[in-house]
Design goal:
Length: 221
């Protein structure tokens, strides 16, 4: 039993070392897990994973009993990638030309944060439905590029889009405030004009009234 456990651990260690040698920055933080009779190692190809930079999901599959890499899994296994709790996107896996048993799915993570990889299908006839989520105890979350940029940090597309959206919202508020001021001024002008006309209008009882002095002179004649 101890020999079997030691063998499995040695396979995982050798797999991580092999990945690290063949792919720069690979295997710094991968999640190992047993899936039935198979052992897998899941993570990013490039670590740390940077927002807006090309990357890939990687899964290394070995047989637990023999320690040998599993071939042909790209024909029966797929991966769904999701950002947070959003709608997942299904991607095909490609077999590596350099490492036997290694499969990848390339894409560009356009948002910083947590990603979920869900592998579905089968490995060697064994059904698979396994969910892997990035985090401090598994593999890296995607990080924004600004903290790593030098000498000048360039705002990401998402940051620029947020700035534009905020500017548009502020401009819209200013336009609405200006229109509100114009409307208030027009209403004030109308009310002032109505008040002035009301003061100048003749009294109803004065219309058609004959001056009293003229009537008295006619009677005396």
């Amino acid at each position: 039993m101890r020999s079997r456990v030691f063998s499995q651990a040695l396979v995982s260690i050798l797999a991580v070392v092999a990945l690290g040698i063949l792919f720069p920055m690979v295997a710094l933080a991968h999640e190992p897990r047993d899936l039935g009779k198979y052992h897998v190692l899941v993570g990013w190809v490039n670590e740390p994973a940077i927002q807006g930079q090309p990357n890939a999901i990687s899964i290394l599959i070995t047989d637990k009993a023999t320690g040998q890499p599993v071939m042909g899994a790209e024909k029966t296994l797929k991966v769904d990638v999701a950002y947070g709790g959003g709608q997942p996107k299904t991607m095909d896996l490609e077999a590596s030309d350099d490492v036997k048993g290694l499969y990848t799915a390339s894409f560009i993570p356009t948002k910083a944060g947590s990603y979920v990889f869900t592998f579905t299908g089968s490995i060697g006839g064994q059904p698979v439905n396994a969910r892997f989520e990035s985090g401090p105890n598994t593999f890296d979350d995607v990080t924004p590029p600004e903290p790593m940029e030098f000498p000048v940090a360039v705002p990401s597309t998402a940051s620029l889009a947020q700035q534009v959206q905020t500017a548009d919202a502020n401009a819209q508020s200013a336009r609405l405030f200006g229109l509100g001021g114009i409307a208030a001024g027009v209403v004030g002008t109308i009310l002032a004009g109505a008040s002035l006309l009301g003061r100048r209008a003749p009294r109803p009882d004065a219309v058609g009234e004959t001056p009293r002095a003229t009537s008295t002179n006619s009677e005396n004649r």
